[in-house]
Fold:
Amino acid sequence: MGRRVGLVVAAFAAVALAGCGADSSGSGADLPAVANAPAQDNAQRGGTPPKQESSGTGEAQQAGTSAQQNRQLVRTATVELRAQDSNAVLAQVKDLVMAQGGYSAQERSQTNRASVTVKVPGDRLDPVLESIARLEGVEVGKRELQTEDVTEQVVDIEARLANQRASVERVRGLLDRATTTSEITQIEAELTNRQSELESLQRRYEALKGQVAMSTLTVVITGVGAQAVVEDENDFLAAFAGGWEALVEAFAWLLVVLGAVLPFAVVLGLPLFGFLWWRRRRKAAPAGTS
Structure:
């Protein structure tokens, strides 16, 4: 009898243990669902998953690394030349620049002096300078070359562009899920502001990249042998022109002063003139009566 009772108790104990194991396994299976519930709720509400958030940052870091590897340089150069025929040398300089993929941006030409400002691909500026120095009958009087490293500026704008694009996309996602008129109005206003900032950054980036891609070269050509003569002949003319300009300027200032004083003279002078005239008539009246 005691043995049977022991067997029954053991059977009940085994059933109870099995039930507890099932409960514990069920609660363990529910843990992932509970843990994932906030993420699912965030996704349903339009939240951005962490992976998507890091994509914009990764794009910015990749762009910054690319710019750091290739230094972004803005180069400007100025060359002063002396030659017998300044206009002929000017044409040769323009041909050299066009052969290297550049173009003329601004040009001036007169009898004994010519100048031109050209845009040259950044990696072709040095060959162009060397070719200009080797032109026949040309003497290089002065040469200046300036280089500015704008790599950090390019990296900064690239990172801001990537983040701003991601920001615009997030606002567009909110606009798609907006339900009320007030929500749509507010989101559209925010989207317009962010798109304007994005376009402004894009324009700055394109302008900076354009300066990096195309260097600026200014070439000034002076005619040999005519420079001293022209200066001697122009001494009197320059002095006369300077004196004439000073006279015209002084006359202009005189007119300004006269124009400023004239209203006061009219307002105050007419009553004073009338008073003096009346006083003179009054003094002359007794003399006439006597």
In short: The beta strands are 73-83, 103-109, 113-121, 138-149, 214-223. Residues 227-289 form the longest helix (63 residues). The radius of gyration is 43 Å. Residues 50-242 form one domain.
